[in-house]
Amino acid sequence: MKSLLITSAVLFSFLASARADEIVVKGTYQGENIYVRNPFAVSGVGFCVYEVTVNGAMTSDEINSSAFEVDLSVYGFAVGDEVSVTLKYKDDCTPMVLNADALQVKTPANFETVSVKAEEEKLVFTTSNETGSIPFIIEQYRWNKWIKVGEVRGKGHNRPNSYEVPIRLHSGVNKFRVRQTNNKKISVYSREAVAITQTPAITFSKSDNSINFSDATMYEVYDQFGGIVFKGYGQSANISGLAAGKYYLNYDNVQSEFVKK
Question: Radius of gyration over alpha carbons of the chain, in Å?
């Protein structure tokens, strides 16, 4: 038995994986079919691939040839629908998917912001004219940088699409935005949503083994070289395992530091 890994020079939005004697190509439907090079079995009896399924259902495609096509158009998929194609093959040969990027989102990331609003526990936004089922990344401005705080899969429709994503507000002025990035690393952003809270600023105290906050908060700990040590959410952080030295602490909307003795 053997395993096969499909690789590419670019990062695709599909997932291609392989287990013993099968290849699985996953992604979203983009209006294209899958093409396979299908060698003879080393045993000399028949061809390599003996079964093809699409989302778990056996296909009716003719696979007893040196090359064949998996026709995805017959399933009634809409662009953006999730698709999984499985090729099962004999253990003395290896087929090749010729266009494993067929399930890759090829359209550029693009959308229009109809509305975006930061509420107490969620970001609510509506978009239109999406060009593909590309993930929306939710970012919050904390500690002088934009950080990822959530993600939701885009619906990919031209019509208005509404989304809700859980968020956590810090004290003072909160800023959020929504981002889409395509496979070519081109990003498109929504306009910013602002929410102002009246909750008191969070403070912290340190003991030998822990950092204790006055209320639950997101936090990050960095070493003196700027490397992330750990991060989390809560009212305390265990620092018993840290080596002695100076550390930088981000919490609430504050940047601070402490020394571990």
Answer: 25
At which residue do the structure tokens 């265990």 appear?
A: 238
pLDDT, one tens digit per residue, over 114-171 is 999 998 899 999 999 888 778 899 999 999 999 999 999 998 888 999 999 999 999 9
Which of these CATH numbers, 3.40.50.2300, 2.60.40.10, 2.40.50.140, 1.10.230.10, describes 112-197? 2.60.40.10
CA distance 130 to 111: 4
| CATH T-level topology, domain 15-103 | Immunoglobulin-like (2.60.40)
- Verdict on whether the full-model pTM lies above 0.90: no
| Structural element, H or E, at residue 89 | strand 82-89
Closest CA relative to residue 220, chosen from 172, 171, 148: 148
